[in-house]
Amino acid sequence: MEKNFGSIRDVARETGLSTATISRVMNGSENVSPSTRQKVLEACEKLDYLPNPAARALSTKQSRTIAAIIPTIEHSVFAKYIAAIEKSLDARGYSLVLAISNNKPDEELISARKLLGMGAQAFVLTGAKHTSTLLDLLVRRDVPHIFTSVWNPGNIKPTIGYDNSGLAGKAVEYLASKGHRNITVLHGKTVESDRTVARVEGAKAAASDDISLHFYETDLHVAGGKAATKIALREHPENTAMLCFSDVLALGAYFGLSEAGKDVPKNVSVMGFDNLDWSTEIVPPLTTIDLPASEMGAEVATQIMDLLEKKRELYSVELSSDIIERGSVQDLN
Amino acid sequence: MEKNFGSIRDVARETGLSTATISRVMNGSENVSPSTRQKVLEACEKLDYLPNPAARALSTKQSRTIAAIIPTIEHSVFAKYIAAIEKSLDARGYSLVLAISNNKPDEELISARKLLGMGAQAFVLTGAKHTSTLLDLLVRRDVPHIFTSVWNPGNIKPTIGYDNSGLAGKAVEYLASKGHRNITVLHGKTVESDRTVARVEGAKAAASDDISLHFYETDLHVAGGKAATKIALREHPENTAMLCFSDVLALGAYFGLSEAGKDVPKNVSVMGFDNLDWSTEIVPPLTTIDLPASEMGAEVATQIMDLLEKKRELYSVELSSDIIERGSVQDLN
DNA sequence: CTGTTAGCGCATTCAG
DNA sequence: CTGAATGCGCTAACAG
Q: The whole model's pTM is what?
């Protein structure tokens, strides 16, 4: 009903060619003579023609759109990761549509429906734990989906990410190697994140008899980290280190410690998880775990496009992460 | 060519009705008897039917998709703002597609083309300064667009946002009222942002004869703020306050000051811009300017949808912001 | 290498 | 209140 912008037919008319030929050059088909291609391109330019994506999608049954649902946009880990996905998709002519779940299964489901309604051909989900309603929906509609931010070989469906449990274990071992025996562990809500659950379990598994861990669950925000720090300080003044399963929590810990007059790392050591950009700037610089956000995004995007185009099956990939030693952990030895 | 998921025809067949009726039900038309509506809804449920967005868009020439281009996703001001836009759009059945420009005009243009290629019906642009190529493109294709994060009554096209210049001026006046006469001003690249330019100008305009401002341009990151702080400290040790045109820069300033052994606010006062979530947690809590990110998002979304549906013209709106007094500015009086 | 012909799935006249 | 018919803009065989 609205104004009509140049359709493929206008270009056809302008060039005296058929719509099929226009379509061919628009899609980079080989079977077009250089001269006609040239002519078509010029006409497109002149008419300011842009193919109608809806018509194209309708005809090909390919929206070239893939969906990602992340818990939050506020942490730059996700920002980096999403940027990487988008970049890879873009390079091959796909688009990313994003939704935020706020860690709520029902919001995730609603977003998924919406994304499906936008024509998403595949889904990138964060974590491996999702409602069966969502998973069933995707299966029923035959929409490929992959789990990220986790690498879990035991999972039935492919996971692309890192070994949260193992990394948390490594972190505990690292602190232990520095002589810390009493450690406060700050983490987000376990009900909200299977990655948090894995980290907590990994930490527990790594704790030997002579080291005691004290877990504090809080909101995954700076405020949460700060509040939990104060409680931990009161309840376990003997703890010499704080392991934070997110840099954001670590930032809150720094603030809480500062307010309590504790020096990092002299009085209390702090270790993070994520390697956010400010972690190298904070005083003292934060020892943390560098998560391979960009690599993860690239891998995910590539696998999905290969699946869509070449029917190559999705498969699990473990990305490696490392502890970045900086100045926030004191060596007690 | 791919598998076919339930089309409107399947529902029609299942219910023994015509596709027109199914369509009516799906679009909430009044002219359907309750019983048929019920029957159709059940069939949709049973067949797991979801209207094909491409077909719908092709037929109506309405993608119900609107685009927003923001400079970065890494600052939660934008996250809040985008969340608000999305929420409002969602409530009326529209979708948001997002692109990041990284403050680069050419990336913005590329994104815009892509978004157009995805069928975006309207654009939300950040700031009022954009390449004429982009603006021409939008005008030529008759795509409505609005500028945000700025309120500039002198602008030819509508702007929805706050008075960057005025707010910066207020900030300077505020610091002056607290007795600060020598002030370091930290800001991002002026070439990248007209909002930064406006803030710088506003600050200059507000500076009376007896107060001197020293401007430092840096990267809009924590690291940039920290680095600039160190330079400023060296070049203007007499300055008693730092006005940061972004909380992120203020965070860097805290770190830089801390490393230099300066206490906030005892030795140096710090004032921010944005009111990010951690600004209340940091020690001392940051005095900053609360930008109306959510209100802005809601306003933008509403105006655009009203334009699309009711042809109501876009118009400029100034959103008010306030200085939030916390503990990072010392009263020298 | 290029044109012809059919739909893709839906919304929308216009009848009834 | 409901159905039949038409076309949105494009791609994909199929001819030639």
A: 0.91
Q: Which domain holds residue B39?
A: 1-49
**Residue A159: closest CA among A170, A149, A167, A168:** A149
**DSSP label at A274?**
B
Q: What are B159-212's pLDDT values in tens digits?
A: 999 999 999 999 999 999 999 999 999 999 999 999 999 999 999 999 988 899
Residues A170 and A274 in one domain: yes
Find, in chain A, the residue whose alpha carbon is nearest to that of B224. A281
Task: Tell me whether residue B332 is in a domain.
Answer: no
Q: Which two tokens stand for residue A203?
A: 């930490």
Domain presence at residue A192 = yes
Residues pairing with A145 in the sheet? A123
Q: Are residues A39 and A65 in the same domain?
A: no
* 3-class state of residue B172 by DSSP: helix
- Cβ contact B79–A63 (<8 Å): no
| Whole-Å CA distances, B7 to B4, B44, B62 | 8, 10, 19
Q: How far is A209 from chain B (nearest CA, A)?
A: 36
List the beta strands (DSSP E) in A128-172: 145-148, 159-161
A191 plus A75 within the same structural domain: no
Residue environment code for B170-189, b if the CB has 16+ CB neighbours within 10 A, otherwise e: bbbbbbbebebbebbbbbbe
Chain B contact for A83, CB < 8 A? yes
> What tens digit of pLDDT does each residue of A84-134 get?
999 999 889 899 999 989 899 999 999 998 898 888 999 999 999 999 999
Q: Is the dihedral of CA B124, B294, B291, B155 positive or negative?
A: positive
Structure-token pair, residue A273 = 């998880």
Considering its fold, how many domains does chain A have in total? Answer: 3
Domain with residue A147: its CATH number is 3.40.50.2300
Q: How many CB pairs under 8 A join A and B?
A: 126
Residue A316 tokens, joined: 């699990």
Residues A11 and A115 placed together within one structural domain of the fold:
no
Specify the 3-state DSSP secondary structure of B152: coil
Burial class (CB in 10 A: 0-12, 13-18, 19+), A283: middle
Residues A286, A292, A294, A296, CA torsion sign: negative
* CA A73 / C1′ C9 distance in Å: 35
> Quick one: A262 and A169 in the same domain?
yes
Neighbours of B190 (CB within 10 A): 16
What's A25's domain CATH number?
1.10.260.40
Mark the ranges of chain A whose per-residue pLDDT is less than 70: 1-5
